[in-house]
Specification:
This protein has a domain of 57 residues. 83% of the residues lie in helices and 0% in strands. It is built from 3 helices and no strands. It is elongated, with a radius of gyration of 16 Å.
Length: 94
C-alpha cells in the first residue's frame, strides 16, 4: 500500500472517530440543555485545541484537509456546548 494512501486512510478514520466522539454530546446538550455533568474547562480546552488544529490544517494546505475539516466540526460542537454551559451556569436563575 502506498504511503499516501495509508496516510489518507488513517486521516479518514481519525476524522470519523473525532466527529463521532463529539457529535453525540453536542446533540444531547442542544436537545436537553442539560450541562450539569459537563466540565467547563474540558470543553474550553478542547475547543481551543480544535481551533489550533484548524489553523495547522490550513497551514498544511491541501494535505491538511482532514485536520481542518474534522476540527471545524469538533470546534463548532465545543463552542455550542461551551456557550450552553456558560448560559446555564452563569446566566440562568435556578
Amino acid at each position: 500500500m502506498e504511503h499516501q494512501t495509508l496516510f489518507d486512510i488513517i486521516g479518514w478514520i481519525a476524522s470519523i472517530c473525532m466527529i463521532l466522539g463529539y457529535l453525540p454530546q453536542a446533540i444531547q446538550t442542544i436537545r436537553t440543555r442539560q450541562t450539569d455533568g459537563i466540565a467547563l474547562p474540558t470543553f474550553l480546552m478542547m475547543g481551543i485545541g480544535a481551533i489550533c488544529f484548524m489553523i495547522q490544517g490550513l497551514m498544511l494546505g491541501r494535505e491538511g484537509i482532514f485536520l481542518f475539516a474534522t476540527n471545524l466540526i469538533t470546534a463548532t460542537c465545543s463552542v455550542i456546548i461551551f456557550c450552553i454551559k456558560i448560559k446555564n451556569d452563569y446566566f440562568t436563575k435556578r
